[in-house]
Automatic annotation (TrEMBL):
The chain crosses the membrane at residues 24-46, 58-78, 155-176, 234-256, 262-286, 321-342, 363-382, 388-407. It is found in: Cell membrane. CDD domains: MFS_MefA_like. It comes from Streptomyces lancefieldiae. Residues 418-447 are annotated as: Disordered. Its main location: membrane. Residues 431-447 have a biased composition (Pro residues). It is a multi-pass membrane protein. It comes from the Bacteria. This is MFS transporter. Keywords: Cell membrane, Membrane, Transmembrane, Transmembrane helix, Transport. InterPro entries: MFS_trans_sf, TM_effector.
């Protein structure tokens, strides 16, 4: 598929930065990521240091942040394949901005509570599901499939830089304005994202009329589509198991750093910023690493390194040396995540039909996000029962599971990026896409 608005044919050599719609897309999403990084840094500080949240309350806050994708991702994906993706993105941005602005308003009135913070997190999460389901699936319609790997690499690296800026900005705004008012930075980012999305002029392909078709029927099609392709099924399972392990770790990560290791808000923001720089480096290096070693071996190596990067955190004690070690380990961990994530996303987009893009992404989001609330509750229970550090050890052990999943699949030896669904991949013999003669295990449709 070639973009209908940009000269991005397979043979084009023009820089992606010359594509107006891609620039607008990238600018808007980067602004949103910057703001979200402000919130990611500020909300734990606000909950732990300002509202004196307990371990269980922190776990519940994380649970409510992560519950909406598990409940709504499949529906959001089906809606994005039915209707305008850009309108869905703008709606999500504006709802998120409205929810977040209530926090500094409540703080000014001295009415802010942990209950309100949890409600805002749930609303923002639901709006984010609508936005993300459309945003991720919009990219293959803006650039040619031959440019997807380069596009995802640029997106991943710029998003990581934006996350670094957001973490540092969050620390600065927290010091200058206080944590509640610092969230105004995220409110502004959502407005910028909505403005940029509204200026994208690429016409969206329309699916055949869907009158008379129920939404759950189309959701079931997406589930069966992903399950019927070995590549999509494997990468979705890798994402889900990785997400579960990281969600368990991340639920208590901020609490552990802020309390047990006595990091201040500024040091916490700097550590997050180092991790984001690692994600940028990994995303930029992904195309060359995949070309040199093959996408499969590269992803397998990145996943195998990830559990090792948790060792400094598990051994750490308060002090600048350990803070530096944790920052360096997080840099390496997110470099691996950036390289593997960029590559697996490109593979999934490249092998998926145009009319299934949003639903394919939604299935991955649903399973990935569905693992997070359960992991958050498990982390809260284990953290209260056996302690925070032993729970982090358990989460680190779980990071081995996605390594095993990928190693046991044919994807581990994938040496070339696949082509579009209508073009055979150089490595497709080992992993054929589903055909009418292949049995597809039925998956129950969503009610």
């Amino acid at each position: 598929m070639t973009s209908s608005t940009d000269p991005s044919s397979p043979g084009a050599r023009q820089s992606l930065w010359h594509h107006r719609n891609f620039r607008l897309y990238l600018t808007g999403q980067a602004a949103s990521v910057t703001g979200s990084s402000v919130s990611s840094m500020v909300i734990p500080v606000l909950a732990v240091l300002e509202l004196d949240a307990t371990t269980a309350e922190v776990a519940w806050l994380t649970f409510l942040c992560q519950l909406p994708p598990a409940l709504l991702a499949l529906h959001a994906g089906a809606l994005a394949d039915r209707h305008s993706k850009r309108k869905q993105m703008i709606t999500g941005d504006l709802v998120s901005a409205a929810a977040l602005v209530s926090v500094p308003v409540a703080a000014v009135l001295d009415r802010l509570s942990l209950t309100q913070l949890m409600a805002v997190a749930a609303v923002q999460g639901a709006a984010g599901v609508l936005h993300d389901a459309a945003a991720i699936s919009l990219l293959p319609g803006l650039v040619d499939r031959s440019l997807l790997q380069r596009s995802n690499s640029r997106i991943g690296s710029l998003f990581a830089v934006a996350a670094t800026a957001g973490s540092n900005l969050g620390a600065a705004l927290t010091a200058l304005l206080g944590p509640a008012r610092a969230l105004l930075g995220d409110v502004l980012s959502y407005l910028v994202s909505a403005w940029c999305t509204a200026r994208i002029q690429a016409p969206e392909s329309r699916r055949p009329a869907t009158e008379g078709r129920r939404l759950h029927t189309e959701i079931g099609e997406g589930l069966r589509y992903v399950h019927g392709d070995t590549r999509l099924r494997t990468l979705t399972l890798v994402n889900a198991t990785t997400s579960f392990a990281l969600a368990l770790l991340n639920t208590l990560w901020a609490l552990y750093l802020l309390r047990s290791l006595a990091l201040g808000a500024t040091a916490f923001g700097v550590v997050l910023g180092l991790g984001a720089l690692g994600a940028a480096a990994g995303a930029l290096a992904a195309p060359s690493l995949a070309a040199r070693y093959g996408p499969g071996p590269m992803m397998l190596t990145a996943l195998a390194i990830t559990p090792l990067t948790q060792i400094p955190l598990l051994l750490a004690s308060p002090g600048l040396i350990w803070q530096s070690a944790i920052g360096a380990a997080l840099f390496l961990q997110l470099a691996c995540a950036g390289a593997a994530g960029t590559t697996q996303r490109t593979i999934r987009q490249a092998v998926t039909d145009d009319g299934m893009q949003a639903r394919m992404q939604a299935v991955s989001t649903w399973l990935t996000s569905g693992a997070r609330p359960a992991a958050a509750l498990l982390a809260g229970g284990l953290g209260t029962w056996i302690g925070v550090r032993p729970t982090l050890v358990a989460g680190t052990c779980l990071l081995v599971v996605p390594v095993v999943v990928l190693y046991r699949s044919p994807l581990r030896s994938l040496l070339d990026m696949p082509g579009s669904p209508s073009v055979a991949s150089p490595s497709a013999e080992a992993m054929p896409p589903p055909t009418p003669s292949q049995p597809i295990v039925p998956i129950p449709q969503s009610p």
